[in-house]
Amino acid sequence: MDDWDDDEPIKLTTVTFVGTASCTPTDDTDTACFLINGHVLVDCGWAAALTMLSRPEYDATMLTHVLLTHCHQDHYMGLASVLFYRAMQSARIESDRPLIVAGPAEDVERIVDLTLAFIMAERLGERCPRPEILPLSAGDGLRAGELDIQTAATRHPVPSLAYRFLDMDTGVAVGITGDTAYMPELARFFSGVDLLVTEGSTGLTDPPQERAAGHQSIRQAAMLAKAAGAETLTIVHTDMRRREEFERVAGEIFPGVHVPWPGEQCNPEDRSVEDY
């Protein structure tokens, strides 16, 4: 007799592209931020809590962790919207555990303190408890429920981290660089990931690796994915108005590339950009 329960939902790893644009969003986009399995937010864009509402099945009350890749304004400004939304919806938060905010050790505590001061958290009282702060350095690891998370340094003007997620329930691996100059050595950190999410801020201009601005091109993003042996590549933090052109150029180096719109969602197990 087959013990399989047809009514039991199949567990899938889910990546939601909350925002995908460059540091100054256009139209209905937000800058790059991502939701993993509905409860881990990577970066916060300009207004992550508001942008998340484009996917009604998720909102900021469901978060257990916020991971900052680095502390440039376009990656942490939305933390204010996340904390304020959670305060306004505090009755809906089921867990008594504090939200964990993790990020580069040099900056993350200061950013949380400034955010709490900005929203005047003391006036919100118990509805807005102080998050638990987790300072991270390259090489550190952490667990967020079913997600085992590892870190590596990226090359940017401020301390910055890349994250590799392993879903212990599904075996799926997802890599996210945050902002970075092209670093061929990151291919080892991301080796064999099912989905690589990386930036293409400089478009079709290939900057030298030592450039102080710390960003990479569309072609360099594709080169990183190819060297890592990734299954699928998504390019973010770029000019969304040129997404079709960028997909074509990157696809000449790495087949299976996609420049996602905000609100798109994927299950890396599918290994299909057409299903986004």
Molecular structure report:
This protein is an alpha/beta fold and 276 residues long. The chain has one domain (15-263): Ribonuclease Z/Hydroxyacylglutathione hydrolase-like (Metallo-beta-lactamase, Chain A). The protein is built from 7 helices and 14 strands. It has helices spanning 48-52, 73-76, 79-88, 108-118, 186-189, 218-228, 243-251, and strands spanning 15-19, 33-36, 40-42, 65-67, 100-104, 132-136, 141-144, 147-153, 161-167, 173-176, 195-199, 232-236, 257-258, 265-266. It has a 7-stranded mixed β-sheet with strand order 6-5-4-3-2-1-14. Helix 4 (108-118) links the parallel strand 5 (100-104) and strand 6 (132-136). The radius of gyration is 18 Å and the shape is globular. The model is unreliable at 1-5 and 272-276 (pLDDT under 50).
Number of strands: 14
Our count of domains comes out at 1
* Tally of individual helices: 7
Summarize the biggest pleated sheet: 7 strands, mixed
Overall mean pLDDT: 91
Under CATH, the topology can be stated as: Metallo-beta-lactamase, Chain A
Structural class: alpha/beta
Q: What is the radius of gyration computed over CA atoms, rounded to a whole number of angstroms?
A: 18 Å
CATH architecture label name: 4-Layer Sandwich
Series of secondary-structure elements, N-terminal to C-terminal:
EEEHEHHEHEEEEEHEHEHEE
Q: Kindly report the name of the CATH homologous superfamily.
A: Ribonuclease Z/Hydroxyacylglutathione hydrolase-like
Sheet with most strands: strand arrangement: 6-5-4-3-2-1-14
Specify the CATH class: Alpha Beta
Distance between the termini: 36 Å
